[in-house]
């Protein structure tokens, strides 16, 4: 049915289960894997603007920055070498997510989390003690490997552990930890920028969250899904009863076992992924991280101090403003945790998209109005406050929509046998575009000027239409019954045949609302 969207709701049976302390603790520990990613996003921008760090490792960049007396606000601070240092981590993360894919599938989710923690820990120590650029880059690559393993395994772990009705909330614990990591890094940078050796503390402290996830992962049980997949059915049953807080788990256990039998039939996760029945989750999982990065969020996350400097704040004030966006990022993620299983993923995606679009247009107009195309001008205090206000509203919108949902949705829509490979696709695409944005933003700002905000705004419009038409609601659907969601979607149903549906005892109810945009 071209041009229209059917919102389908699948009501499979409901599994009994409570919100247990056991599941809460397991998810809390696992989501701390998000801290290492967040800390890294937040730390590099601040460190690379510290004089003592630049003069030690990148003296040519330092000299150039000092000589740069240009008044063009759009074209300051542009150094490919420095941005390459920042973004090298994302390339390492991309590569390691492929190795993580098979470890996660064959040895279980917890060992990938452990690998993530330990490599990140070693990377943090090397970085904190760095005496030359080689140590700096080596450390950075190890941090990237750690992020690749953690981001590949943690969202899967959370989505599989959680009861269907709380999956959104528990999975978003990961994004909450990312935002806390970013905020902690911003605060630490703010304090450490005042000391010559401050960059060592900033980089070395990354070891703290790495320590938490390394030790934490050793104490965690693996998910029932992964245990069954690896032939430990009895243990899986025990864990399932424990996480659900009831002995009445036979129905859910049967569904997991059926999913696992399908899983045993496949030869290669990657080949299977190309089959028509996997087309819907695959396309959605490629586009969601791509779109998430094209919201432009990392322009704010990486370059907030630079951006705030550009719009006329002094050094300290610009770091402070970055802290403000950090706090809003955390608080708005909490909003998402509260509403995601009640109102669903689509509402958040659509509202967030519209709000981001409005803010981007406003920032583009305000900055264009003040600096024109020459990039020369000054902003009054009130004017700057309005710009910061718009940026904050934009960050809030991202933080309750594309931020958490960019990790949640891809982790819950694949069948068990290729869930691990699916999550690798998510991480790899995300890291690739994080790298690209990190690498080209400053050059783009210099060339596109205030038009850059309209550029990202255009993408936000496209992604919002994409969600409206092609992303079905997945709230409250048991994870091993997702195939029913695709089977009931107006567009994707043609890729799923009856023989692909192996879920047992499911009564499907289908409520179709035709909405014509
Ligand atoms: C994104 C990151 C981003 C962060 C901001 C995450 O979901 O993947 O790229 O920096 O949100 O909070």
Automatic annotation (TrEMBL):
It is found in: Membrane. Keywords: Membrane, Sugar transport, Symport, Transmembrane, Transmembrane helix, Transport. Pfam families: Sugar_tr. Its main location: membrane. It is a multi-pass membrane protein. The keyword Transmembrane applies. GO terms for cellular component: membrane. The keyword Transport applies. Residues 26-475 form the Major facilitator superfamily (MFS) profile domain. SUPFAM superfamilies: MFS general substrate transporter (SSF103473). GO terms for molecular function: monosaccharide transmembrane transporter activity; symporter activity. The chain crosses the membrane at residues 19-39, 81-99, 111-131, 137-158, 170-191, 197-220, 282-306, 318-340, 347-371, 383-403, 424-444, 450-471. Belongs to the major facilitator superfamily. Sugar transporter (TC 2.A.1.1) family. This is Sugar carrier protein C. It comes from Rhynchospora pubera.
